[in-house]
Here is the input.
Amino acid sequence: MAATFISPSAGDETRIGDAVELLKKTGYPISKSTLERQCRARGVKLIKYDRANWASWTDLLKVHRDWVDES
Here is the structure.
């Protein structure tokens, strides 16, 4: 019988550039550099992969929410 691979977490990592494009649809666009800077300021882990930064989509939504509230 074949064993299936079980991942401890599904993960919701998203490229920062893709997140910026999706967040434009909210009516509160944010630049890639601003989103990355806000992530660092709030302690969100950025993962460098294939010359792009990735982060948890859930964390990015929270960062964006907080950034909008502060504006």
Summary: Helices lie at 16-24, 32-41, 57-70. The chain has one domain: 13-59+66-70. The beta strands are 13-15, 47-49, 52-56. Confidence is low (pLDDT under 50) at residues 1-9.
